[in-house]
Amino acid sequence: MFGFSQWRRRRILRKSDLDDATWRRVTDRLPFVARLNAGERARLRELTVLFLHDKQISAAGGLELNQEMRLGIAVQACILVLELGIEHFDGWVEVIVYPDEFVSAHEFRNPEGLVETDALSYAGQAWLRGPVILSWADVEHAGELDGMNVVIHEFAHKLDMLNGEANGFPPLHAGMDRQDWSRIFNGAYQDLCRRVRAGEHTEIDAYATESPGEFFAVVSEAFFEIPDLVKAVYPQVYGQLAQFYRQDPASRELPREWRLKC
Ligand SMILES: [Zn+2]
């Protein structure tokens, strides 16, 4: 059946003024796009257009945002939902971009059990049913193959928040086993915490040990940027993420010009 949402989708795509040269200029700098085949790139482009139509990406703190900057953020967000659909980002509209790290109040429980507030600086934040906030200086870092990508990180939190607070347990698809997910993620999280405490160098960024929610966001960054490494270090986590995102980025070849940068 040709429903309203499909009609709306086609209308938005038809009216898009995104040209090939701009699309290529922005996506050529992104390693996870370099791995995609032509069909996947075309779908990513459609999702990106829908994202830009549905979301409001606004600047704060004196930053000036242009079309290419907005496009760069949208493409990176949409890689997460390439096989899931843009509806996974429903329920909120705003992306706010600061020029650099921004300071935000942070609540924590002190050793006496009382809640205190202090100010911390952030590269990104994702609010439950609210905005995603990004530092442009960190967004620009996306072209490096180091497993770190603030846009993927914050939008992974958004997917995790589809069933409440970001706790590393997003809503799983039919056929996925909740107990497998818990056991595998908890095992890898504990292993990484142990290695970080022991002072070992870890392939996965140590920030992942902050909480199970941060672990999910950090391994999602690595899953798209350095999938072979995630598969080598935590193969079962890789398997769960491949089922969750319905993508297998390690099976996609990284073009030679990118391999030279590794
Ligand atoms: Zn986070």
Describe the structure.
By secondary structure, the chain is α/β, with parallel strands linked by helices. Helices cover about 45% and strands about 10% of the residues. It contains 12 helices and 6 strands. The strands form 2 sheets. It has a 4-stranded mixed beta sheet with strand order 1-2-6-5. A two-stranded antiparallel sheet has the order 3-4. β1, α5 (about 65-80) and β2 form a beta-alpha-beta unit. α4 (about 40-55) packs across α5 (about 65-80), α7 crosses α9 and α10 (about 225-235) crosses α11. The model has no long low-confidence stretch (mean pLDDT about 95). Zinc ion binds near residues 153, 157, 214 and 217.
List keywords for this structure.
262 residues; alpha/beta; four-stranded mixed sheet; globular; binds zinc ion
Concise structural overview:
With 262 residues, the chain is an alpha/beta fold. It is built from twelve helices and six strands. A hairpin with a 5-residue loop joins strand 3 (102-109) and strand 4 (115-122).
How many DSSP E strands?
A: 6
Low-confidence stretches: none
Distance between the termini: 47 Å
Largest sheet: 4 strands, mixed
The radius of gyration computed from the alpha-carbon positions, rounded to a whole number of angstroms, is: 18 Å
Write out the distinct hetero groups bound to the structure: zinc ion
Strand arrangement in the largest pleated sheet: 1-2-6-5
Query: SSE string, helix = H, strand = E?
Result: HHHHEHEEEEEHHHHHHH
Tertiary shape: globular
Which structural class do the helices and strands define?
alpha/beta
In round numbers, the mean pLDDT is: 93
Number of helices: 12
Strand content: 5-15%
Helix content: 40-55%
